[in-house]
What we know:
Helix 8 packs antiparallel against helix 9 and helix 10 (203-215) packs across helix 11. By secondary structure, the chain is mainly α. It is built from 12 helices and 3 strands, in the order E-H-H-E-E-H-H-H-H-H-H-H-H-H-H. The longest helix has 30 residues, at 76-105. The chain folds into 2 domains: 1-139, Multidrug-efflux Transporter Regulator, Chain: A, Domain 2 (Orthogonal Bundle); 153-243, Orthogonal Bundle (Globin-like). Strands 1-3-2 form a 3-stranded antiparallel sheet.
Amino acid sequence: MRYSVSQAARLAGVSVRTLRWYDQIGLLKPTEVTPAGYRFYGDGAMAVLQQILFYRELGVPLEQIGRILSAPDHDRAEALQKHRTLLLMKRQRLDDMLRLVDQTIGGNIMYDERPKPTQSDWEAVRNQYAQEAADRWGNTEAFLESREKHAAYTPDQETAIRAEMEEIFAAFGQCGDPEGAEAQALVRRWQDHITRYHYRCTDAILACLGQMYAGDPRFQQNLDQYGPGTAQKMSAAIAAYCKA
């Protein structure tokens, strides 16, 4: 089947803006974009979206999700099955709560003695899946810290963090000499941004990120949207900053 961007967003329970952001960062591309600019998502893209939502449920940062999905050992069927398990547990808890409310409204409070998944049960399963993802694709201090921070952010906070990130990228796109004062100040700002909102970004981590920005086509494609050569400019500025 083919879904418009609004249909895909409604089915997945996300906003249209979220899908556009995933497209912008290269995490989820539409199956088709018409000459008029309309996005359409096929079954394959919708399956990828479900996997993204699963890992977001676990608190995995978007940057890490991209690496997981492209990893040779990533098992799509396993991810979807685990997501289904979490959703079923959520649905049963909600159904039980609704049933209790209906019984209370009707004045006939009845208690079902069958064991039901509790919030702690659901969190235990989610944490188990999150730990498996960390063990397989990123069991590092930075990965765990980022996952913990993002799990606590509200949608509005995520939006504000993303807006600040885009502002920094746009500034890099407009600056001149990568070794100049303006570019070097932007590198410090970017390092502070990562540390504040994601994980402690040491100079060593920052240097690795700089290499990825210019060496990974996905990062390069995303960053160059803020101006031709932005990825290379950021990479060169970070290299100069770390060397100094």
